């Protein structure tokens, strides 16, 4: 059928009601958001953002309501989609934006693609990777992997991806989303090493929309975390501690989930795998820890400083 592209959509969307089909690749995926309220009677108040791209650039795509339980888990980073009967709306101004792996890619930020059950009922088709043709010009998924030796020099809030061997994972803890609120964030701390430094990555992992992965992070697993944010302890603490925290678009993968993921082709991931082959599993197991209370960032060593 006749296709359009994201660049053409941005120029013509106000003058059209119906749009030609789109062929795009998913580059980023947000966590699933529940926006239900007791006073509003909605069957499936869910929403999820994706960043999709074709040869012309990148745009946000929003999956709404009952399409979320039907499609959310099938739409992975790297998946190629054929979209028909979708809607175009002005962008929601307050949403978070992932940092693209390709800094040269053009971003269309004024509009977003809306996928709904009706008005109009969107048609979503997943194109198997072996059927994707090079002449379609779809961009590859690119990452921003860093090693532990590079982390200390990165600025606060810098976005990056990491891979490491888990040496510590703490118990799941809860933090209130807002003071006096009854909603909680669930998170856990983990340490992962990659052989480039004596220090581990310290990772604050909030529960994303991947409960099966979040609950199974164990020592000795290969852990990949994407779209992490660098947190530099900005106080005048001489033992300045740098750690990484998840963002709205973070994805977490552990041993058993890596097969077929786009990051397996990344050079730093391949280097890490080579390093693990040189390690003695028995020696590493002796250094691993699981569970317990992990006070971090550490409180000052005296009450006066506290």
TrEMBL record:
Cross-referenced Pfam families: RADX
Top-level taxon of the source organism: Eukaryota
Entry protein name: RADX protein
GO MF: single-stranded DNA binding
Biological source species: Irena cyanogastra (Philippine fairy-bluebird)
């Amino acid at each position: 059928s006749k296709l359009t592209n994201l660049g053409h959509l941005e120029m013509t969307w106000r003058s059209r009601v119906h749009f030609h089909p789109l062929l795009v690749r998913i580059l980023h995926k947000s966590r699933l958001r529940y926006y239900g309220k007791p006073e509003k009677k909605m069957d499936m108040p869910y929403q999820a953002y994706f960043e999709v791209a074709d040869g012309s650039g990148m745009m946000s795509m929003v999956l709404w309501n009952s399409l979320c339980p039907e499609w959310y888990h099938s739409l992975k980073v790297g998946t190629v989609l054929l979209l028909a009967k979708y809607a175009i709306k002005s962008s929601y101004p307050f949403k978070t934006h992932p940092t693209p792996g390709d800094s040269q890619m053009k971003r269309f930020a004024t509009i977003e693609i809306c996928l709904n059950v009706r008005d109009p009922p969107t048609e979503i088709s997943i194109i198997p990777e072996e059927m994707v043709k090079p002449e379609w010009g779809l961009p590859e998924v690119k990452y921003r992997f860093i090693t532990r030796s590079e982390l200390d020099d990165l600025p606060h809030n810098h976005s990056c991806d990491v891979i490491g061997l888990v040496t510590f994972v703490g118990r799941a803890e809860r933090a209130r989303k807002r003071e006096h609120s009854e909603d909680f964030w669930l998170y856990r701390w983990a340490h992962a090493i990659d052989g480039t430094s004596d220090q581990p990555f310290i990772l604050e992992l909030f529960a994303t929309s991947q409960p099966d992965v979040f609950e199974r992070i164990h020592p000795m697993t290969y852990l990949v975390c994407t779209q992490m944010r660098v947190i530099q302890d900005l106080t005048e603490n001489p033992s300045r501690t740098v750690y990484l925290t998840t963002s709205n678009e973070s994805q977490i993968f552990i041993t058993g989930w890596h097969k077929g993921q786009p990051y397996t082709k990344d050079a730093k991931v391949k280097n890490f795998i080579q390093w693990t082959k040189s390690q003695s599993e028995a020696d590493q197991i002796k250094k691993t820890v699981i569970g317990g209370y992990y006070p971090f960032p550490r409180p000052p060593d005296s009450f006066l400083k506290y």
